[in-house]
Design a protein that fits this description.
The protein is α+β, with helices and mostly antiparallel strands. It has 13 helices and 19 strands. The protein has an eight-stranded mixed beta sheet with strand order 7-11-12-19-18-17-14-13. A hairpin with a 2-residue loop joins strand 15 (about 330-335) and strand 16. The two termini are about 35 Å apart. Belongs to the class-II aminoacyl-tRNA synthetase family. Its main location: cytoplasm. Homodimer.
Length: about 425
């Protein structure tokens, strides 16, 4: 019977066959221990010389790293294994022999591993990170489907930009100028006017020449937009959503988190509600902490966000940023025109902003004025303005960066490990 490593718990005491690759091995004169992987997980195969034909045992001792094979044996429970099971191997059939696999169990430099990203993905650590990423995606669909959101797919090629074109990738669209999308937000606002509550999940692109551990050139965003939702309503959705994905990873990826060495006690506390401070309060806090470089009207950098986050054991909202720091589409605070109804959600442990969101401007004339003030082409935004012309309503939305969220939840230091094939300032290969 063929099965997968993920399914072996259903076959204890049975003889099964698994298609696998050899991740590693060690052997003595009488026993060979094979570390096997099949994409669904890892399991140890034990080959006892006295219990198999000599040919099988010699094959087990000589087999090379990343050789593909069919392994047949009996599944047994094993309390010493984090996985909880192992296979008593009875037979091995080599499918394809791997020769001189470049990533050996020794230490390798980051650039070497990035050059071999197509193979590095096979490692236990990268496997664990990708499983956490997948669980966050699964839990995202679960949450928004449960809450009555409709999935909508905005275009990747656009003729305009939510935040200007200075950091966009330009391309020619036949005779017109076009850009790779930096956000699907504007289109999602149109979708919200049609469907009420919507969300998108897709790739976004920023031509930002940054080399920090928090930045990628191509990354994935989850972007909900909600009609008739004001600023406070949106914050509640955000904290409930983040709580849901964290608790889902804890429940369904415990083995992967253990493999990554993640301190799960720091994640167990991530439950709504989250603390909130205003931008004004954040500036005062930072000045009291000795950040003499920060004044009202300045944007926060990574050290500032980290200092604020260290005061909390949950993600923290920083709300009501100055109008001058934020994009043109954000709703002014009705009590203060110099700030907008927005929030950045800062993750604990130095991982920085994982969500940016706001109530959107719903007044036609003010939005038109803002477009002009930001030197944007009114013709390119004509359709966006028309959303405020035909039945405009208060509405809000946000965007969560998937890779930063994966890095935080899995405890990985650099976002380059959180996406299968990272695009960085100096990397377009493989």
């Amino acid at each position: 019977m063929k099965t997968t490593i993920a399914e072996v718990s259903k076959h204890v005491g049975e003889e099964v066959t698994i298609g696998a690759w050899l991740a590693n091995k060690r052997s003595s004169g009488k026993i060979a221990f094979l570390q096997l992987r099949d994409g669904t997980g890892f399991i140890q195969g034990v080959v006892v010389k006295a219990e198999v034909e000599e040919e099988i045992f010699q094959k087990a001792k000589s087999i090379t790293q990343e050789t593909s094979l069919y392994v047949t044996g009996v599944i047994q429970e094993d309390s010493r294994s984090p996985f909880g099971y192992e296979m008593q191997v009875r037979n091995l059939d080599v499918i394809h022999e791997s020769v001189d696999y470049p990533i050996t169990p020794k230490e390798h430099g980051t650039e070497f591993l990035m050059d071999n990203r197509h193979l590095w993905l096979r490692s236990r650590r990268q496997h664990a990170v990708m499983k956490v990423r997948n669980e966050i995606i699964r839990a995202t669909y679960e949450f928004f489907n449960k809450e009555g959101f409709v999935k909508v797919d905005p275009p990747i090629l656009t003729g305009s930009a939510p935040e200007g074109t200075s950091e966009l990738f330009h391309t020619k669209y036949f005779e017109e100028d076009a850009y790779l999308s930096q956000s699907g937000q504007l289109y999602m606002e149109a979708a919200a006017m049609a469907l009420g509550k919507v969300f998108s999940f897709g790739p976004t692109f920023r031509a930002e020449k940054s080399k920090t551990r928090r930045h990628l050139i191509e990354f994935w965003m989850i972007e909900p937009e909600m009609a008739f939702y004001e600023h406070e309503d949106s914050l509640k959705v955000q904290e409930e959503y983040v709580s849901h994905i964290v608790q889902s990873v804890l429940e369904n990826c415990s083995l992967e988190l253990e493999r990554l060495g993640r301190d799960t006690s720091k994640l167990e506390n991530i439950k709504a509600p989250f603390p909130r401070i205003t931008y004004d309060e954040a500036v005062k806090f930072l000045q009291e902490k000795g950040f003499d470089d920060i004044e009202w009207g300045d944007d926060f950098g990574a050290p500032h966000e980290t200092a604020i986050a260290e005061s909390y054991d949950k993600p923290v909202f920083i709300t009501h940023y100055p109008t001058s720091l934020k994009p043109f589409y954000m709703q002014p605070d009705p009590d203060r025109e110099d700030v907008v109804l927005c929030a950045d959600l800062i993750a604990p442990e130095g991982y920085g902003e994982i969500i940016g969101g706001s109530e959107r401007l719903h007044d036609h004339d003010i939005l038109s004025q803002r477009i002009n003030e930001h030197d944007l082409d009114p013709e390119a935004y004509k359709w966006y303005l028309e959303l405020r012309k035909y039945g405009s309503v208060p509405h809000s939305g946000f965007g969560l960066g998937l890779e930063r969220t994966v890095a935080w939840i899995s405890g990985v230091e650099h976002v380059r490990e959180t996406i299968p094939f990272p695009r960085l300032l100096n990397r377009l290969y493989p």
